[in-house]
Design brief:
One of its GO terms (molecular function) is acid phosphatase activity. By secondary structure, the protein is of the alpha/beta class. Helices cover about 35% and strands about 15% of the residues. Bound molecules: magnesium ion.
Length: about 250
């Protein structure tokens, strides 16, 4: 059942920041979903883009300069942005070497949604380098006494490469659309969206975690996807609970 329209324009934070702490699951060496997929309306942002936003949209000055709080204004003067924790979560996922990100939205206004994702900026966050995978160091560490040196060198090289990659955009905000590698945006059952995501990414359904505010979309679990219901939108806590559920179903003890 559709949600009632909220009584007023949602409040938008004045300073983007990480959730109280970076989602710990991303810093952990425990398994993570290979593909994390987000719904848009009432999951990443607090509105329905097809009924609340009236094009043409225009980026606001504050969307391209610090603190990057407001993304766009529509022809009626309404302003649109993400839920408060979303920019930091997207930045952390973007920096993570083991996770890819996608969108599955059934909005009837895919072009408006894409326009907004081009206007919304993700500020620069100095995201910590995730912990290495178990296998990347333990093999070396068990081979001989000088290993730890070898393992350290390997880890150093990996960090150097990662920092070099991130260095190019250091300090700069980037368009949100650049953080969402795989987008399926069109009306209809989300089983179709996920079937397409399976084809385009090559990722198995069981390796996907999906965040959505509408229970009806739980039907994607018939494919083997794990869905985490976020009735009040995505934040750092819901992100952790979603990853926890995905791990629980795979028998991972956290
Ligand atoms: Mg939704």
């Amino acid at each position: 059942m559709p949600k009632p329209k909220p009584p007023s324009t949602p409040s938008i934070p004045q300073t983007p920041s990480f959730p109280p702490s970076l989602p710990p699951s991303l810093a952990s060496p425990l398994p993570l979903p290979t593909l994390i997929v987000f719904d848009l309306d009432y999951t990443l942002w607090p509105f329905w883009v097809d009924t609340h936003a009236s094009p043409p949209l225009k980026p606001l000055l504050s969307s391209t300069t610090p603190p990057y709080t407001h993304a766009a204004r529509d022809k009626h003067g309404e302003e649109f942005s993400f839920y408060p924790h979303v920019p930091a979560i997207l930045a952390a996922l973007d920096a993570h070497p083991r996770v890819r990100v996608g969108v599955a939205s059934r909005t009837g206004a895919p072009e408006v949604a894409r326009d907004l994702l081009r206007m919304l900026q993700i500020p620069w966050f100095d995201v910590p380098v995730p912990a290495p995978l178990d296998g990347s160091t333990t093999d070396d560490a068990s081979s001989s006494g000088s290993t730890s040196k070898k393992a350290r060198e390997k880890e150093k090289a990996r960090e150097k490469a990662l920092n070099k990659e991130r260095g190019a955009g250091r300090g700069k905000a980037r368009k949100a659309i650049e953080f969402l590698g795989h987008m399926e945006i069109y009306p209809g059952s989300k089983k179709k969206h996920f079937t397409r995501l399976r084809e385009t990414t090559g990722v198995e359904f069981g390796e996907m975690l999906f965040f959505d505010d509408e229970k009806r979309n739980r039907e994607v679990e018939e494919l083997g996807v794990t869905m985490w219901w976020v009735p009040d939108g995505l934040d750092g806590g819901e992100f952790e609970r979603g990853v926890g559920e995905w791990r629980r179903r795979r028998g991972v003890v956290c």
